[in-house]
Specification:
The chain is mainly alpha-helical. It is about 55% helix and about 5% strand. It is built from eleven helices and four strands; from the N terminus they run ααααβαβββαααααα.
Length: about 300
């Protein structure tokens, strides 16, 4: 990897991430699913960026060639007369200074240093991602299957005739989360399990993540952050994709059980304890809950106004 290639990856990844974020911001009045689609497109292009750079010729700006001035011929040196055979030629002895001859100068290769720093950051984030997925596997293995008939009935309604995800209860999580793919897994915290009245809202939301493949794109965005960790716009893209995916899952769930019912479903903060890392599963921060409820109610109010306008 050359310094030119590293610079090209840096500015092109920033350009693509910035364009995706800007395009998604222009869809602020549109459903969150459309913003998710735009951000996912930017994510896919970024993942393919190294391959695109390798396959497509780089655009280079050719500098005009200037004719070099002709070399001025040096005047011929006058001929030196050879010494006579009988004339002794003096021998020139090299003066010994007594100083050791200096060895080759050691220089730091900036490309090697930058490559080592990038590899260290990439390895750290990949190890953290791998450890998070391994932790999820352990939590799922240690969790117990949910046997409450109310939760199982809500799961069947949320699956809508399709194969339902695996539903388990774990004391290691502090809020419901979904992860995995075929089959997906939904983990319930003890506080949520005790509130069967919110089963439809919780499972409809998590099924929204499962149906849209959000966990796969979450993993892809985490991989992207590991590769382009030096670019802050890539981090912003990953966070914005997770946030918009939560809003899209809210909208999907509200459309199925009713916006008013979904927004009024109790949402306990969960017991104190370690929250799962963002690399683990689709679990929103607690600070987002109020904002998401307001967004659902705002969409419900807009829908009622639209219906009233058509009726009038």
């Amino acid at each position: 990897m050359t310094l030119e290639l590293m610079f090209e990856l840096a500015w092109k990844s920033g350009l693509i991430a910035g364009a995706a974020l800007f395009a998604a911001s222009l869809l602020g009045a549109r459903p969150a699913a459309e913003r998710v689609a735009v951000l996912r497109l930017g994510l896919v292009i970024l993942l393919a960026l190294p391959l695109l750079i390798a396959l497509m010729p780089a655009l280079r700006i050719q500098t005009p060639a200037f004719a070099e001035p002709a070399a001025v011929a040096a005047p011929a040196a006058p001929p030196v007369a050879a010494p006579a055979p009988d004339t002794p030629v003096p021998r020139l002895e090299a003066a010994s200074t007594g100083r050791p001859v200096a060895g080759p100068e050691w220089r730091v290769d900036p490309v090697a240093v930058l490559l080592a720093v990038w590899a260290a950051g990439c390895a750290f984030l990949l190890i953290r991602l791998t450890a998070g997925v391994a932790l999820l596997h352990r939590w799922t293995r240690d969790a117990r299957p949910v046997s409450d008939s109310r939760w199982l009935a809500a799961l069947a309604r949320a699956a809508q005739g399709r194969r339902p995800p695996v539903l388990r209860a774990s004391s290691r999580v502090t809020s419901p989360l979904s992860w995995g793919w075929r089959p997906a897994v939904i983990l319930l915290d003890p506080a949520a399990l005790d509130q069967a009245g919110r089963a439809d809202a919780v499972l409809a939301h998590e099924m929204g993540h499962v149906r849209h493949g959000d966990w796969l794109f979450l993993m892809a965005s985490r991989l992207l952050v590991a590769l382009f960790w030096f670019n802050p716009l890539v981090w912003v893209l990953e966070r914005e994709l997770a946030r918009q995916s939560e809003q899209a899952a809210d909208r999907w769930a509200a459309d199925r059980i009713g916006r008013a019912e979904y927004a009024s479903a109790p949402r306990g903060p969960g017991p104190p304890g370690p929250r799962p890392h963002a690399a683990l599963g689709m679990a929103p921060p607690r600070s987002e809950l109020a904002r998401r409820v307001i967004a659902v109610m705002h969409a419900s109010a807009q829908s009622r106004q639209s219906v009233a306008g058509r009726a009038g």
